[in-house]
Design a protein that fits this description.
It is a single chain. The protein is an alpha/beta fold. The protein has one domain (2-10, 23-114): Alpha-Beta Complex (Spore Coat Polysaccharide Biosynthesis Protein SpsA, Chain A), CATH 3.90.550.10. It is built from 3 helices and 6 strands; from the N terminus they run E-E-E-H-E-H-E-H-E. The chain has helices spanning 33-39, 56-67, 90-101, and strands spanning 2-7, 27-28, 31-32, 46-51, 74-78, 110-114. The two termini are 20 Å apart.
Amino acid sequence: MHAIILAGGFATRLWPLTENTAKPLIEVAGKPLISYIVESLPEYIQITISTNQVFSDDFEQWKQKYFSDRGGKINIFIEDSSGETEKKGALAATALCIEQRNILKNGDDLLLLAGDNY
């Protein structure tokens, strides 16, 4: 099984809270929201976080801080957008991620999750 967690938005409606932070990385009860999502998934599942160019480094730092013990089981996919007007949308980002990462090549099941909902 492979899980894709969508985290490619710019969260402009939550500004100023999200001016410099991706919505899934906002701390809730001491840790980023997306951490709760990842922790709820079995460790054997391959996880891809789909995000934009603006927040990609932040997600890499989050991965190292909270999930370095999972090795290569968590990967970051960087969408080709650095602003709201360049976004292609969640479905286009998902399709591109699946295609470029060959996620369904072995007939694996796919779990699609929103990075800002738990």
